[in-house]
Here is the input.
Amino acid sequence: MVSTTQRDGTTWYRCEECEMLFDSESDAETHEENCDGEDDTPSYLQ
Here is the structure.
């Protein structure tokens, strides 16, 4: 599940697995679908 946080007056979307921040909710959701929470680099970027 993607959560939101406010920083510097901007809404950021955070992956609950690895806590990586995204400025786009769709990017965060896509990342989270592929995130295993164990590696800093998502498998789809390797």
